[in-house]
Task: structure prediction
Amino acid sequence: MNNYNKNQVDMPKSLKFPHIFSISTEQEKSVFLLTLAILIAGIMLLNLFSQKAQANLAYGTWEETFSKGKLTFLENNTLVSMFSPAGPEFKVVRKIPVVITAYSSTPFETDSTPFITAAGTNVRNGIVANNYFPFGTKIKIPELYGEKIFVVEDRMSWKKGNYQFDIWFPSHQEAKNFGAKRTYIEVLEG
Result:
């Protein structure tokens, strides 16, 4: 007795593709590496969006900057800054104990683009790296540099944690001579 449905048709063996989904070890490696690359790219995108969100929380949007009186219109057609000609005045909003170290633009201390910061800017005097604060955060290191203002525009190895800052120096020897120092920073706003 036949147990098949009347409408069911057996596929001839010559049309079956039993090996269509079998892949070689090399192909497995390729699929694994592709999956890993997609996962890493996704994590990097999430990190980028997170940093943008942190920056918006810290500094506000364009509308908030305009409504706080930092920018105004002159004669209803020219946008001007309301900062003092002597430069913006910043107020200290937090003091945090930290470890300060130094780095330079050498390939063994950075990545494959040693003269470009994580924020996409060129390295220069006054740049610091930190893993906690959003890009653009302004700080002072009063015990070491007095009133000099530094800007967070780079990141460090994840092993360094959130309470370590790396000051950029033009040469490896200067960075090495700086060493490591325990002090405090002042986080600025304004």
Notes: Residues 87-189 form a domain with the Barwin-like endoglucanases fold (CATH 2.40.40.10). The first helix runs from residue 25 to 59. The beta strands are 71-74, 78-81, 91-104, 127-129, 138-140, 149-154, 164-169, 181-189. The chain is about 25% helix and 25% strand.
